[in-house]
C-alpha cells in the first residue's frame, strides 16, 4: 500500500465538530436576558448548569460585579494603551494583592494563551530542551512549538509517565542546559492531577529539570489563598518552577497570572515578553473585578467557599459510587468525566440529559481521542444537592438507553478507556437473522463467492490472497508476518450481506506523517529498528489497494451487519494486541462516512486513487490519440523519444540473478522515497512472484547493456483488471532514460495487449499518471485509536 498522506488536522476536527453541531450538542447559543450560574437557557429551555468552569461561582458575586461597573463608569470600557508604556490606575492594587496570594513575583497577562506565548519563548533559551506531557493544554503546546524555529528540541511523554520522563531527561542531559517539563496541574477533561510532589523530587534528583505548570483548572477552589492545586502540594515554589494561574474561570474575572520565583527571569519576562509587551492590557472592568476577587482570596472567606465546594464534590462522588456509571478518573477535583466511547453515544447521552433539564459538556476530539468521547461534568457552588442528585439519577437512567440506542454497551466503553471491566465477550457469531463467520485463511472461503463479491479489481482476489498468505507467514522478521482474517456476514438464506478481509501486522507509525518527521524517526531506527511502530488492524492489507469491503446496500439487514462488524473488530483488535484500526480506500462521498465517524473513526486523506479504463478492442494508438495536445507532446518528448534506446521485455518468471537485481531496484524506490515509508518487503515476495502465474514483470534495460535492469514494474493479472503493484528503479539512470514515465507507458501498452478493461494504477504519483490518461479520485481512510500520544508526538516532529 502507498503511504497515507499527512492528515489535514483542521479537516479532521472540522468533520468531527460538524457532526457534533448537527447532533445539537456543540456551538450552541445561550439565550435569555439574564444568567444566574445555577441554570443556563438553551433554545428557551432552562437547564441546570453542570458545564461551568467557575467552580466557586465568583463570576456572579455582587462585589465583583459592582467593582466592574464602577471601573467602567470611572475609566471607560478599556484603557487603550500598551502596558509597557503605562498601566491603567487599577493595575497596581491588583498586582499587590495577587503577589500577596503567592508571596512570589508575578506577572499579570491578558489571558493564559497569550501568557504562554509571551513566557515560554522568553524563559526557554536556545540551549534548553522542552518535554511535554501529551495531555498538557493546547495553549502550552502551541507556544512551545514556536521554539522549533530556534532549534530547541521538543519531546513528549505519555500522560504522567514519570519513568518515560526520566528517560527523556537522561537523553537530553548531556547536550542541553535546562530541561523544561510542561504539564497541567489539573487536566481539564478527566479532572486528574499532575504528580506534583514526585515531579519536585525528580527536580531535586536532576538539577537541569525545570517545571512549568499550567494550573488554571486548579485555581481558587484549593490551596492557601486559593492559589491552586500545585501550590497546595508544594507550599512554596522553587526557582526551577514557573506557574500559571488564572484570573478567569474560578477566579471570576479575566486574565491570568504567571508566578515566577526566579527574580532575574521575572524581570526579563516582565520587561519584554512578546505578546505581554505588544498586546492590549486588561480592561478596567476586568482589573477591578479581579482585584475584588483577590480580596476574597486573601480573606478567610475563601476557605469557607472551598469547604462548601468540597462537600458538593464529595456528595457527587458518593452518588456516582452507587451507580455503574463509567467514571474515567476517581478524584476530588470539581471535574468529572463519564465515558461513552463512541461519539454518537455521547451525542445521544448529552441530548437525553438536556431533555431532562441538565446541561453538561461533551468531551470530543481533539481534546480527547475520538474513541474516548464522553461527558464532562463540572461541580460548582451554583449546584444544589437536589439537582446534583437529579443529574446522577438522570445519567444512571439514560446512559444504558443511549448505549442501547447506539448499539453499544458498557464493556465497549470500559475497553475504550482501559478501565476494569467484566470478562470480555466471545466473538458474536450470530445475531437476529444474521450469521457472523470468520476464517484465518482464504482456503476456507468459497472461491467463486469471494471473487464475485470482493476479488474483482485488485490483488485481493482468492488467488492473490493465497499468494499473500504464503508470502507473509513463517518469516524471520516480525514485520513480515501478517495475520489474515476473512469475514462473511450471511443472512438466513446464506446470502452475503457484508464481506471483507482484515490483516494485523506491524506498521511504521510515521506512515501517516510527512517526510520531515520520517527522516527524523529513521535516524532513530538505525539503532532501534522498531522505534515508533505499532500493530495495526487494517481493512485489506499493506499490499492491496481498492475496494476491500462489500456491503449489500439494498439489504434490509445492512445496518445490523455493520453493527456486528464493528463489535467484532473491537474484540479482534483486543485479542490481536493492535493499537489502531484503519478502514481504508473510500471515496469522499461514500455512504458510510457518517456511520464511521459516529463509531469513533477520524477520516484522513490518502493519496489519490488512479485508474485507467480501456475501451473494448482498444489499441495503444487509439488510446494515446485521446490524450490532450499537451499530454501528447509530453508523450512524444519524454517517453517515445527514449523508447528506442531501451530493451523492453515482459517476463513471466525470473532467474535468481534477475530476482536479486529487481529486489535491489525495489529497495532503491522504497528507501529513496519516505513518502512510502513502510517496512521493506522480504526478497521472498519477489521469488514467489516469479513462481506465480498471475504475476509478470515489465523490464527495462539499456540497449547497449541488455543484462543491466534499470527499471521494473511488478504487475498482477486479475481477470479484467491489470494491477501494477510495485516499481523498482535505478536512480542513477532515472533522468537519463525517464525510467518511471517509460514504465507507466509500457504498463498501459501491456494491459491493452492483454485486452484488460481496467488498470488499477495505484495511489501515488497522480500527476505523472494523469498525463497518461489516468482518472484521479480522492481517497480516504478512517482511523480509530484510543490513544493520541503517537500521533501528537509525530505532529511535533512535522511542525517547523
Defining key terms:
alpha+beta, Aspartate Aminotransferase, domain 1, Aspartate Aminotransferase, domain 2, Aminopeptidase, 14-stranded mixed beta sheet, seven-stranded mixed beta sheet, globular, disordered N terminus, Aminotransferase_I/II_large, transferase
- Shape descriptor reads globular
Tally the beta strands. Answer: 28
Main pleated sheet: 14 strands, mixed
Helical proportion? 25-40%
Give the distance, in angstroms, between the N- and C-terminal Cα atoms.
28 Å
CATH superfamily grouping of the largest domain:
Type I PLP-dependent aspartate aminotransferase-like (Major domain)
Report the mean per-residue pLDDT as an integer.
Answer: 91
Q: Could you tell me the strand content as a percent range?
A: 15-25%
Instruction: Label the structural class.
Output: alpha+beta
Give the C-level CATH assignment of the largest domain: Alpha Beta
- Our count of helices gives 28
Protein name: Aminotransferase class I/II-fold pyridoxal phosphate-dependent enzyme
Keywords: Aminotransferase, Pyridoxal phosphate, Transferase
Domain Aminotransferase class I/classII large: 50-389
Cofactor: pyridoxal 5'-phosphate
Structure description:
The model is unreliable at 1-7 and 425-430 (pLDDT under 50). With 800 residues, the protein is of the alpha+beta class. It contains 28 helices and 28 strands. The protein folds into 4 domains: 40-55 and 302-390, Aspartate Aminotransferase, domain 1 (Alpha-Beta Complex); 62-297, Aspartate Aminotransferase, domain 2; 430-607, Aminopeptidase, CATH 3.40.630.30; 615-756, Gcn5-related N-acetyltransferase (GNAT) (Aminopeptidase, 3-Layer(aba) Sandwich), CATH 3.40.630. The radius of gyration is 31 Å and the shape is globular. α4 (112-123) packs parallel to α5, α12 (301-321) packs parallel to α14 (385-405) and α18 crosses α28 (789-798). β24 (695-702) and β25 form a beta hairpin. It starts with 8 loop residues before the first helix and ends with a helix. The strands form 4 sheets. Strands 15, 16, 17, 18, 19, 20, 21, 22, 23, 24, 25, 26, 27 and 28 form a 14-stranded mixed β-sheet that branches. Strands 4-10-9-8-7-5-6 form a 7-stranded mixed β-sheet, sandwiched between helices. InterPro entries: Acyl_CoA_acyltransferase, Aminotransferase_I/II_large, AON_synthase_class-II, PyrdxlP-dep_Trfase, PyrdxlP-dep_Trfase_major, PyrdxlP-dep_Trfase_small. One of its GO terms (molecular function) is pyridoxal phosphate binding. This is Aminotransferase class I/II-fold pyridoxal phosphate-dependent enzyme. It comes from Gelidibacter maritimus. Its cofactor is pyridoxal 5'-phosphate.
